[in-house]
């Protein structure tokens, strides 16, 4: 034990130590938890990159085409390796390693222990619930932390180049979250900025260096944005971008309430049953719900007003999210512990307090913006929490306080206890049903994969593939070459349009009727509302004819010519 402690003391300041520490956390978390995607968006993007729509493609929609090109090229070279998941894991490992490396090379022992606690709770999210929004937050936080630290250390240029690379990578992974984390993490750089301005008369080098770093990051971000924009400049992708803009509005903010706009909906030819179908994101009907009608429905969407009542609702939602949502309880506790230490245990430093106040205001603004635009999503909440926790720790100048040991023991023990409570449902031994569903759905998908003679349509809500591809599982070439939902944000991409075209389908609603190449797969009563819709708008004799069962799912053909 003494030898181990001595080895740690001799090496903990090295980046290799932080990297191995985080690699160990990755292995430990994967030992106790199943790795999965936090949202279906990552599954969709992996499908695009790995060739599920026929061949690997770099248009990942929400992730920059430069990263998409790298991912799709890797899949083209060696398809059996889960490159998409591996990219996120490596980015998380390197980001958290950089954060630990920075703090381990600064002086305060208490802050070092706290950053280990923060990295521990982030690791659960990073290594067992992969999600591109959170990955962007890890990268941005690591980039700003490393750049801020570069002004305290030797080999400044190298650290700044790596820091800018992390920032640009964050921008390419998720632009919106990069901007949100940037607003918060600039708190790390404010002390450097204040000091450089104060010393401007005597030494301009720090201010100039900070300016050049910012300019380099800005130019790099603009460059990768322009490249991405050019790669979506074709007419087909421009149409999809317009369509997806409305899709995002309807999926994240939801449709305007039917009860409030019944007259307007009826004037648009949308009755209550149509509304229910579209509101479930099954709106890929280019004849009856095309771009022009989407625009008119969007215009009904009331703008959220910033009022005292709205702000009170924001605070109430925030309380319910941070204090009552089980998966966020550990982050909330650690945030309170760090904030308490900052207020009670820090030496008074006006610049640090200004920086902390700024970071707090930026965090509040980021939460308010995401709430007003989309709602309180746990993934965006966690991402912003990562940035504010690391920023507060970075600008903390902890004084020697009497309750150091007691405080650390209390925080460590409470963090472990709350973590065990928060993560309990997702330990491997509590996820037997999830594992069984995974196996069943893989069998179903294999059967569909082998039936390329038919296109399988389904409701968007069907969890057939959306939640049952794991990050480590292989998605075969052409896995989605004969499956298409009636909506969601992947519909109307050139990739999905080409899939439909192979089965003589342009409008999946209208063209499924009497098309012997098309089946409808459902579980439960997913088909009932679709049949009502088809009878009302396209063919009064449309009915579902049972074909077969595939696992727990029923397969139908839609016909108007069945013998009575």
- The radius of gyration computed from the alpha-carbon positions, rounded to a whole number of angstroms, is 26 Å
Q: List SSEs in N-to-C order.
A: HHEHHHHEHHHHHHHHHHHHHHEEHEHEE
Low-confidence stretches: none
Number of domains: 3
> Tally of extended strands?
7
Please describe the biggest sheet, giving its number of strands, its sense, and whether it closes into a barrel.
Answer: 5 strands, mixed
What is the average of the pLDDT values?
A: 89
Shape: globular
Distance between the termini: 83 Å
Helix/strand class: mainly alpha
> Considering DSSP H and I runs of 4 or more, what fraction of the residues is helical?
55-70%
Strand order of the largest sheet: 4-3-5-7-6
- Strand portion: 5-15%
Count of alpha/pi helices? 22
Describe it.
The chain is mainly α and 564 residues long. The chain folds into three domains: 2-32 and 82-229 and 309-428, no CATH class; 250-300, no CATH class; 432-559, no CATH class. 63% of the residues lie in helices and 5% in strands. It is built from 22 helices and seven strands. It has helices spanning 2-11, 15-32, 40-50, 65-77, 83-104, 109-128, 132-150, 156-173, 175-198, 205-230, 235-253, 262-267, 272-279, 291-300, 308-324, 329-345, 350-373, 378-395, 404-423, 432-449, 494-501, 528-537; strands at 36-37, 129-130, 455-458, 483-485, 518-522, 543-550, 553-559. The chain has a five-stranded mixed sheet. Strands 1-2 form a two-stranded parallel ribbon. A hairpin with a 2-residue loop joins strand 6 (543-550) and strand 7. Helix 9 (175-198) runs antiparallel to helix 10 (205-230). The longest helix is centred in the middle third of the chain and has 26 residues, at 205-230. The protein is globular and about 85 Å long. The mean pLDDT is 89.
């Amino acid at each position: 034990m003494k030898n181990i402690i001595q080895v740690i003391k001799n090496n903990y300041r090295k980046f290799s130590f932080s990297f191995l520490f985080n690699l160990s956390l990755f292995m430990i978390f994967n030992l106790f938890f199943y790795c999965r995607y936090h949202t279906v968006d990552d599954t969709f993007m992996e499908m695009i990159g790995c060739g599920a729509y026929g061949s690997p493609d770099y248009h990942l929609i929400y992730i920059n085409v430069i990263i998409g090109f790298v991912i799709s090229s890797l899949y083209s070279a060696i398809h059996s390796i889960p490159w998409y998941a591996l990219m996120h894991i490596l980015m998380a490992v390197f980001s958290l390693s950089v954060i630990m490396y920075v703090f381990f090379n600064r002086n305060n022992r208490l802050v070092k222990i706290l950053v280990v606690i923060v990295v521990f709770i982030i690791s659960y999210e990073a290594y067992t619930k992969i999600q591109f929004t959170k990955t962007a937050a890890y990268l941005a936080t690591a980039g700003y932390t490393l750049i801020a630290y570069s002004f305290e250390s030797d080999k400044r240029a190298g650290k700044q180049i790596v820091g800018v690379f992390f920032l640009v990578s964050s921008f390419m992974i998720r632009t919106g979250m990069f901007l949100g984390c940037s607003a918060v993490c600039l708190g790390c750089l404010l002390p450097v900025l204040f000091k450089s301005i104060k010393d401007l008369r005597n030494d301009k080098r720090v201010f100039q260096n900070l300016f050049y770093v910012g300019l380099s990051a800005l130019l790099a971000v603009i460059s990768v944005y322009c490249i991405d924009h050019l790669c979506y400049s074709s007419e087909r992708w421009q149409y999809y971008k317009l369509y997806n803009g409305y899709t995002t509005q309807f999926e994240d903010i939801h449709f305007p309430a039917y009860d409030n706009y019944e007259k307007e909906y009826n004037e648009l030819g949308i009755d209550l049953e149509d509304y229910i179908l579209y509101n479930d994101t099954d709106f890929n009907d280019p004849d009856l719900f095309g771009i022009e009608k989407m625009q008119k429905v969007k215009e009904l969407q009331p703008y959220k007003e910033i009022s005292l009542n709205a702000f009170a609702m924001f605070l109430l939602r925030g309380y319910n999210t941070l204090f009552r949502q089980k998966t966020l309880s550990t982050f909330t506790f650690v945030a309170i512990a760090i904030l308490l230490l900052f207020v009670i245990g820090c030496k008074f430093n006006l610049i640090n307090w200004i920086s902390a106040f700024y970071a707090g205001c930026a965090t509040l603004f980021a939460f308010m913006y995401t709430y007003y635009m989309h709602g309180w999503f746990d993934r965006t909440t966690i991402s912003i929490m990562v940035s504010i926790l690391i920023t507060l720790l970075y600008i903390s100048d902890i004084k020697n306080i009497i309750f150091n040991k007691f405080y650390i023991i209390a925080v460590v023990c409470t963090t472990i206890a709350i973590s065990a409570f928060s993560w309990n449902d997702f330990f491997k031994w509590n996820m037997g049903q999830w594992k069984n569903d995974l196996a069943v759905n893989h069998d179903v998908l294999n059967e569909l994969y082998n039936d390329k003679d038919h296109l399988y349509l389904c409701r968007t809500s069907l969890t057939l593939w959306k939640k049952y591809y794991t990050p480590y599982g292989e998605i075969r070439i052409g896995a989605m070459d004969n499956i298409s939902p009636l909506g969601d944000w992947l519909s109307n991409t050139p990739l999905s349009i080409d899939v439909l075209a192979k089965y003589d389908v342009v409008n999946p609603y209208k063209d499924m009727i009497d098309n012997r190449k098309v089946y409808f797969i459902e579980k439960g009563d997913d088909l009932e509302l679709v049949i009502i819709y088809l009878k009302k708008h396209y063919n009064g004799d449309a009915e579902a004819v049972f074909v077969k069962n595939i696992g727990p799912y029923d397969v139908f053909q839609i016909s108007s010519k069945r013998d009575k």
